[in-house]
Amino acid sequence: MVATTIGVFSSGREAEQAVEALHEEGFTDDEISIVARDDRDGGGGGGGMGMDNIADGAAWGSGIGALGGLMAGVGALAIPGVGPILAAGPIAATLSGAVAGGIGGGLLDLGIPEDRGRQYEEDVKQGRILCIVEADDERAEEAARLMNEAGADEVETHGGR
Fold it and tell me: Whole-prediction pTM value?
C-alpha cells in the first residue's frame, strides 16, 4: 500500500537537505513533492525559505542541487486564504485541481485527514515548508527517518498499512 509521509520544515536549507537525502536513498522525483509559500513579492513570512528564485529553477538555499528534477514541475498557485504558493513534484498537479479546497483539500486526495490537512495549510501560511513523499509502507518509514535527520519540525505518515 502507498503511504504519504509529510515533513514540516522551518528552513529551506533543511528541506533541501531532506530532498538530497531522499534522492541518495533512491527516492525519485515522482515520489517527492515540496509545498511552500511564494514570498517572491516580499509578502513577508517566515522561515528563511529563500523562495525568491525557486520558480525560475535558480538557487534555493545554497543551490537547487537535489531539487533539480522537482523544479521542472514547479507550479505557482494562488490558494484562497493562504495566498501565493509554489508546489514542486507530483503535488503541483493535485493542488492545481484543488485550488478551491486549498492545500488541505488537495492533501485529502493523498489520504491526509481533513484536520491534519488544515494544519499543514496553516504551516505553509506561516512560512514553513512541506516535504511530501508518497511511497510504499516500508519506504515511508525510511522517508520519515530521513526527514527527521534533516531537521524536520514534525513528521507524520498517513495511509498505508
Answer: 0.78
C-alpha cell belonging to residue 95: 493542488
pLDDT in tens, 38-47: 876 544 444 4
The residue range of the domain holding 54 is 2-159
* Whole-angstrom distance, CA of residue 121 vs CA of residue 79: 10
> CA 21 → CA 34, 51, 122, 136, distances in Å?
14, 20, 26, 17
| Cα distances (Å, whole numbers) of residue 49 to 1, 39, 40, 79, 92 | 33, 8, 10, 18, 18
Q: Which residues of 70-79 are buried (b: 16+ CB within 10 A; e: fewer)?
A: bbebbbebeb
- Cell numbers representing residue 109 in the block: 486526495
For 37, 59, 131, 153, the CA distances from 144, given in Å and listed in that order, are 22, 26, 10, 12
E strands in the chain: 2-9, 32-37, 75-79, 83-88, 129-136, 154-159
CA-CA distance, 108 to 62, in Å (whole number)? 33
Mean pLDDT of the chain: 77
Q: Which three cell numbers stand for residue 128?
A: 514553513
